[in-house]
Amino acid sequence: MKFLVVICILCICFDVISTKKTRQILGGRYNTKTKKIEIDVTYGGCSGHKFKLEHGPCASSLPPQCITTLIDTTGDDPCAKITRETVSFSLKQAGFKGEHFRGAHITVKGAGDSSAEFTLPKKKKQ
Q1: Of all helices (H) and strands (E), which one includes residue 1?
Q2: 126 within some domain
Q3: Residue 101 dihedral angles phi and psi, to the nearest 5°
Q4: Residue 71's closest CA among 49, 93, 38?
Q5: Is residue 12 part of a domain?
């Protein structure tokens, strides 16, 4: 019985520690006019959530291939409304600033199997 209780406690703790607030991604792109990464996202809660991109590995290929995760940094939101919005990040905010990331293929992961893929521009426009 003690063993079962310990296993249950470990499972709950692991779930709490490992669960980051990812949200369902509907699409994404690099907007060449605004020079920003745009991610279409849906979540349960009222509008006004804050998001960040958390980097995973980048393959040392040419061009680089990077995986990042969209994280909802908003605290608890008891609102049951389903909200859809487009969140945007500058390349600097997203951590993709510098020569190395020109032409990089980016995969942004969300909840479940949701993701968005796009390629950053190869050349800096004058």
Answers
A1: none
A2: no
A3: -95, 0
A4: 49
A5: no
